[in-house]
Design a protein that fits this description.
Helix content: 25-40%
Strand content: 15-25%
Strand order of the largest sheet: 10-9-11-12-23-22-19-16
Number of helices: 12
Shape: globular
Number of strands: 24
Radius of gyration: 31 Å
Structural class: alpha+beta
CATH architecture of the largest domain: 3-Layer(aba) Sandwich
CATH class of the largest domain: Alpha Beta
CATH topology of the largest domain: Rossmann fold
């Protein structure tokens, strides 16, 4: 009888509230565990990857995807490394891992592309076929070959590398930029020719050490003296970087004639040029003009240390869209000059701004005046610091006509700043301008993807608002909510 009573007690115990709730909790826990196992098994069947990097290092840009749709012929990637090889670099980067990840993005978008790994030590003859200059191709390089030609992307071309007191640093990934540029050449076999105007104290791209950068983007650089030579027929663009003197009348006439035939022109100049009459005569034909003077910035969040430095706002333009996030990759200008749109211009011309200063800025037109505050002769901001012009503004694909394009930037030191201070955004702005002039939109946003995250820049008003919000409003709200809840529970 005692045993039967014990069994009865056990049965009764299962009917208690505690056991029922405990059983339900155990069943729910078991169901959740089984569900998680099933979800993991299901997700494991898919190669789902999400690029969580702030600059989308491991995602293809829209322009690259569009360019890949135009490729109809086979393309082969040859990686000069062994399967499973590690290629350690500064900043904990692994070249092979980075390159393989990005190449796989291309392979997933195009069925006519393949990747083959070649050990250069075991296949020196294969590597020699692609060594046109007989300078050697280092391990870790990538060869992109199409029907029209090939390009070799060396390890140091895949990253933006800088030298500091701490040693060599990698501050940007340029893999997509290099591969897409190589694909364009491999598919066409042609290289546009860009002429640098000389004879006015300009800065040569080669003197800045940027010739390789331009040539890696599939451009060939040559010099041109407008005073002694006509503009060659193969000129895809004419550029002037930081001229110290104005054009003469004959040079301006040659440039105007070139633009009338659908030419492309990039000018970067500042107040150091002095007289601008002939240069402005060329630009006036397309509705824009330089305003002589120096831009002085009075808004702290738009400058760095000095009022002559400027972190401009980016306008909505194809050239500047990749640079719109000022807190991440800001363009930096020094000693900038303003531009303006003319009230009278041809109806076929379209003029757009690229960059502007803050509303508190002003243009100092009297350079003999040393006052740090705005005076009567100054021109109030916001000021336009870069502009583009197109004529005609739109071209019918079925009836194409020559379209002139101009990029004018009021900062002659844009590229020296990029080199001396390591401002990658300045370099990107220059290369984006190149791509826009050449009507190559697939190259515009494929800039080096920065690994730096710069500190947030806030105005005084923003600092006060956020300070009050996080120091007073949110804590008081939490305290009030807790106190009200305590009062309710106190009277239960």
């Amino acid at each position: 009888m005692k045993e039967i009573k014990a069994i009865k007690n056990i049965r009764e115990s299962f009917k208690t509230r505690q056991v029922k709730y405990g059983g339900y909790a155990a069943l729910i826990t078991l169901a959740v565990i089984i569900g998680l196992i099933l979800v993991n098994l299901l997700v494991g069947q898919f190669s789902l990857q999400v690029d969580m990097t702030s600059t989308s290092i491991f995602s293809l840009s829209e322009q690259t995807v569009q360019m890949l749709e135009t490729i109809k012929t086979p393309v082969k990637f040859y990686g000069l490394w062994r399967p499973g090889e590690k290629f350690a670099l500064p900043n904990n980067r692994d070249l092979v891992e980075d390159a393989t990840t990005v190449i796989n993005l291309y392979l997933s978008k195009h069925s006519n592309m393949t990747l083959e790994l070649i050990d250069p030590d075991r296949n020196p003859g294969f590597v020699a076929r692609y060594d046109k200059d007989k300078t050697g191709i280092s391990r870790g390089s990538l060869i992109v070959e199409g029907e029209k030609g090939f390009r070799v992307i060396r390890p140091y071309d895949m990253y933006n590398i800088s030298q500091s007191q701490a040693g060599v640093e990698i501050n940007g990934v340029t893999l997509e930029r290099r591969i897409t540029s190589a694909l364009l050449f491999a598919g066409t076999g042609t290289t546009p020719v860009v002429y640098e105007v000389t004879g006015h104290g300009e800065i040569a791209i080669s003197a800045l050490g940027l010739q390789d950068l331009v040539e890696r983007e599939n451009y060939s650089l040559r010099s041109l003296n407008l005073l002694t030579s006509a503009i060659p027929s193969d000129a895809s663009a004419i550029i002037m970087i930081n001229p110290q003197r104005d054009l003469n009348q004959a040079e301006a006439d040659k440039l105007l004639d070139y633009l009338e035939k659908g030419g492309r022109f990039l000018i970067m100049a500042d107040y150091n040029i002095g007289d601008l009459s002939n240069m402005n005569r060329v630009l006036a034909s397309y509705g824009i003009a330089f305003e002589f003077g120096i831009v002085i910035e009075a808004e702290n969040s738009y400058m760095i240390n000095l009022p002559f430095t400027e972190i401009p706002d980016m306008a909505d333009h194809d050239i500047t869209k990749p640079l719109a996030n000022k807190s991440n990759t800001p363009v930096l200008l020094q000693g900038a000059m303003a531009l303006r749109e003319l009230g009278t211009k041809r109806r076929t011309v379209e003029v757009k701004p690229l960059m502007t200063s803050s509303p508190r800025s002003f243009l100092r037109t009297d350079l003999n005046e040393a006052s740090p505050s705005r005076i009567a002769s100054d021109i109030s901001g916001p000021l336009i610091l870069g502009m583009t012009a197109m004529d005609p503004s739109w071209v019918d694909p079925n009836n194409p006509v020559p379209q002139a394009r101009i990029v004018a930037i009021g900062c002659g030191s844009l590229l020296p700043i990029a080199v001396q201070l390591g401002v990658d955004a300045n370099r990107d702005l220059f290369m984006n301008s190149f791509s826009w002039l050449g009507d190559r939109p697939e190259n515009i946003t494929i800039r080096a993807k920065s690994l730096y995250i710069l500190p947030m820049r806030l105005t005084l008003v923003q600092i006060i608002v956020f300070g009050v919000l996080f120091i007073f409003v949110i804590p008081v709200g939490l305290f009030t909510g807790g106190f009200v809840n305590w009062l309710k529970r106190r009277h239960l």
